[in-house]
Specification:
single chain; alpha+beta; Translation Initiation Factor IF3; four-stranded antiparallel sheet; 4 helices; 9 strands
Amino acid sequence: MIHKSVVAFLSLLLLLGLADPAFAEDKPSTIEITGRAAVMALPTTVTISFAVETDSPKAQAAVRDNAERTERVLAALKKVSDKDTKLRTTGFALSPVYEKTERVIGYRVRNTVVLESKDLDKTGTFIDDAAEAGASRIGNLSFSNDKEEDLRKEAGLEALKHAVKHAEALAKAAGMTVKRILKITYDSREHPIVMREAAPAAARTPIAVGEIPVQVEVHVTFEVN
């Protein structure tokens, strides 16, 4: 079930053009309102990236060790994944390791395994099994909803409704009326629940997540008279 929570943030700007009567006729009086709305929904997808790091005095050895460890991590994740779970590798990097005198003393290889799954109940299992197979750390853990585009549209309509409502209230307080909308600027902000650079735990990892917000801002300029 989707719940709504709406917070309206207001900024009032009255442009009356009193200094120059001719200018006042050309440029209408306006009110600028920023309306914000958030639609809450349960997540449908979890995305986890696992960093696999290896060090060795020789570059070839570091690459070989990393490839073997990455394969173990992939195999462990495939073992507990369903057919819809997506796995890929990205961000392979080889870099020298320096001592304090800036002399190269070895090489470090980092590869990233990214998992995307709709089986949220297995989030803790994914983390634990990847760690046991050789993953060095969790680079990113986030939750999202597959219908975020629809949620953004819904939040956008709510934000606009509240902008109109508050524009009318402010105009009335100033002894004016809203004539029309001159401009609308739309700003959608996705807010997946994210955990970054969290080291895998030695014990079984419990992961629980609640609803996630999809927020939208609309900046509306109203003509008033």
